[in-house]
Design a protein that fits this description.
Length: 174
């Protein structure tokens, strides 16, 4: 059962905390969608948080809008500015559902507020899986995968810590 951003904040606060800092620091994330022929498309996007929802806006005639209207499955990936700078990576897998008029107008400082609904489409991301990958010291990395439970807003997850060196295949699940 997919969840909204607010559910992630309640059920997996560490992931949500990174999610708040990553898009806000860069202002841009990467959105993966599926083209009509099934091939992947990756596009920059400016995510916004409003009323517990993660909102994504797309120009009405853009490829990403056409992709999401046809097949709502997508992935939102935080921007990464360097291989070894210690940033975490946040990946949100889910579906983009067209937001109602109320959410579209909830904040006046977003770019789509200057456009009519047919020219700029606003989607709410319904999250099916959240993955946080963090780089630790001494070539180690951690990975936390969380999914909403079938019974409401609770989340369950697992964590992994291992070497970033593929030759060292030791890892452990916690």
């Amino acid at each position: 059962m997919p969840a909204i951003w607010q559910d992630l904040e309640l059920g997996a606060p560490d992931i949500a905390r990174l999610g708040m800092t990553q898009p806000n620091s860069a202002g841009v994330a990467l959105l993966g969608t599926l083209r009509r022929d099934g091939s992947p498309r990756i596009s920059p996007i400016e995510p916004y948080l409003a009323e517990g929802q993660l909102l994504l806006g797309a120009m009405g005639r853009s490829g990403k809008a056409a992709d999401l209207l046809r097949d709502p499955r997508c992935i939102l990936h935080s921007t990464v500015t360097g291989a070894d700078n210690g940033e975490g990576e946040l990946k949100l897998y889910g579906s983009a559902v067209e937001a109602g008029e109320h959410l579209r107008g909830v904040t006046a400082d977003v770019w789509w507020s200057a456009w009519p609904p047919n020219k700029a489409i606003v989607f709410s991301l319904h999250i099916e899986q959240a993955v946080l990958r963090a780089r630790l010291h001494h070539g180690q990395q951690s990975r936390e995968v969380n999914r909403p439970s079938r019974h409401g807003a609770s989340w369950h997850g697992r964590a992994w810590v291992g070497s970033t060196d593929r030759r060292k295949s030791q890892s452990r699940l916690t």
